[in-house]
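Data availability (excerpt). All sequences and predicted token strings are deposited with the supplementary files. A representative entry, SDR family oxidoreductase, is shown inline so that the format can be inspected without opening the archive.
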Amino acid sequence: MSELRYDGRVAVVTGAGHGLGRRHALELAARGAKVVVNDLGGDRAGVGASAGPAQQVVDEITKAGGEAVANPDDVATPEGAQAVVQAALDAFGKVDIVINNAGILRDRSFKNMTVDEFDAVIAVHLRGSFLVSSAAWPHLRENGHGRIVNTSSPAGLFGNFGQANYATAKMGLVGFTKTLAHEGAKYDIKANAIAPVAWTRMTEDLLPADFADKLGVEQVTPLVAYLAHESNQDTGEVYTVGGGRIAKIFVAEGPGYGQKETFTVEDVRDNWAAISAAEPLTVHKNAMDQMGPLIQQLSG
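Structure token line:
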């Protein structure tokens, strides 16, 4: 089959100075996309700033014959997010692909986590993804085409000790992604999310050192690139990826238990096994679909 190309497409990749974002930017550029490489240039806690990391990736792309521009703006601010998208418009005249990858870590057990540590992580991961997508959204709608890939995490989907802030942001991105998928459908805007497992400076304290080679970022980028391609028609989905494995993750509902009378506490206790049953599972398309069984019960 033919090679997937991105000729004529313009991609914005946030947090692209290192790790996953860098690999995404290089891959898209190698396949013909024009790329805005965004990175604030701080450390993994979000402290400091430097134009160096983004520019280094741009230099790699241009040396290989690709086209890219660097952008060091802060995606956690409305002005910074707008500047990221404006960089694409100024340099290349449009934007087609948004890959929200920027993130920081401020891990701490919940009993010790400060409000500032919580807010800072939410600001970059969740608010930043919203702001960049919001800045790009009018242009994607006007063009009648767009691909958005958000970066969630297994920590958000399943929880992880010491990451209440990070997990909250990453699970928030799942709901954000699914809503963008619904609202973008009539404009051929597809939105999906990944939950990667990869060895980067963000995860080097969480993953065993001997897994570094087996969990390289190059194992994640092919999925991201496919989801960003015009041929991909799936939307509103979440995929885990890493170490040579990709799988779809579902938000699903068990069969449940219902009764016409108002529940008492004892009713809940006595029917707990049915309430907690995990099969058969139902994967709903949207919130109204999920409420269908309840509406049917109330109407019966």
